[in-house]
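Appendix B. Chain record.
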Amino acid sequence: MLRYASLVCSRYANMISLLWTPNGRRAAAFGALLGGCIIMTIFAAVGVWLVSGNTAYTFYLALAAHAQIMLGLTAFTALFVRRHISVGKDGVKIEDQPRAD
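Structure tokens predicted for this chain:
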């Protein structure tokens, strides 16, 4: 039993050690975003199916589901793109760069 416990603890320690690096944190954020988007898409689909008899409820729930998907895609974009916004005398300058670190 003690051997199994130490194996489980070492496995979780390896998972936590991934969070110590920027790429590990980015991978954990990707997994969390992907899982959240999948679960909430299923939740929205079931919700739309449950209220399919009422067209107004179906429309507004589907509209909210689209807004949620747009939010998830924005989060994925923010995860993989570094945006620099600078304001000066010349005006506003916006630069998008892929994450290299």
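Further analysis of this model is presented in Appendix C.
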